[in-house]
Every structure is written in C-alpha cells, then in structure tokens.
Write a structure and sequence with these properties.
single chain; 193 residues; mainly alpha; 2% strand
Length: 193
Amino acid sequence: MSERERCPWVNLRNPLYVEYHDREWGRPVHDDRRHFEMLTLEAAQAGLSWETVLKKRDGYREAFAQFDPVKVKRFSRAKIDKLLENPGIVRNRLKVESVVANAALFLDVQAEFGSFDAYVRRFVAGKPRRSQLRTLDDYPSRTVEGDTLSKDLKQRGFRFVGPTIVYAYMQAVGLVDDHTVNCFVRGEMYDGS
C-alpha cells in the first residue's frame, strides 16, 4: 500500500484511512447526498480525529437514512433521543440535532439553487482551486473561500459550519485540490469538474 507517494496526513497503518485518501478525498463530488454526508461527517469530527469519524461512517449512514435530507429533516425529538444512545455515531446532542436542522436548510438551498452542488461551486468560481502543497506544514486550516462559504452557511442558519470545518469539507468534496504536488492521486485528478 505504501509504495505510492501520498499526502503526508495519511495514516499508512490504517487501511480505512488509506482507502479514503486514495479513492475519495479531494475528488470532485457532484451528488447532493454525498455533499450532505460530508458536511455532516466533517461537523461530527469537531474536536475528534478523522479516523474516529471514518470508523463510524457506516453507523452514520444507517442512523441518518443514508444521508437523505428529506428523511432526516423529519426526525422527531424521540428519534434524536434514540440516536443519542447509538454507539455507531458521535453521541453529542448538539451535533446530532444539527444534522436534523441542517437537513431542512440543505433542502432550502437545493430549492433556491437547483442543487447543493451548484450552490457550493459558486464559492470556487465553478472550478476547484489547485494548491501547491509540499509538506504537512503547508496545509491551511482555512482560506478566504472557506471563510466566505462558512459565513454564508451560518447566515442561512446552518450549524457546525465554522471556517475550519467548512474548509475540511471543501477539501473532502474536491472544491479545492489539496493533494500535495508529489501525491499519486493528484496525478490522477482531472480538471473541469
């Protein structure tokens, strides 16, 4: 697995982490359910490691109706209370409640822009920004684009969408290409997303 050069943040001892980096992270996403999933998972990570969230990803998919925002929006108080007993997710009331609240807002954005993807792509002028990162120290925790998207999401009422969380989301869904210049995935990436 480690013969290929990868981004320096990848834990090569964890096959789940390697798989996530190699097949998903930074690759352009255009599916709205995936956008909702990654926005939810990045929010769940706040204060935790990404490895913790990756291990719970299947639990999240099951708990949150495969990230169908129409279904999640209808979760009742009783359903939320039940989720807080589920060891397959991060059992933080504020985070769980934010997923339900964000689902309704996500649907509002879809209605306004035609898709959530169309909405977020506006913040990168329709095309991912390509970084020229070489080391772990080169990675920013936030950017102007991320700060702008974060501010807009907050104004719309979204929760757990601070600048650092939003920038991590942008990296995950390929709104920015933050693979290091020597990472093999960068060589596989394509323009024109």
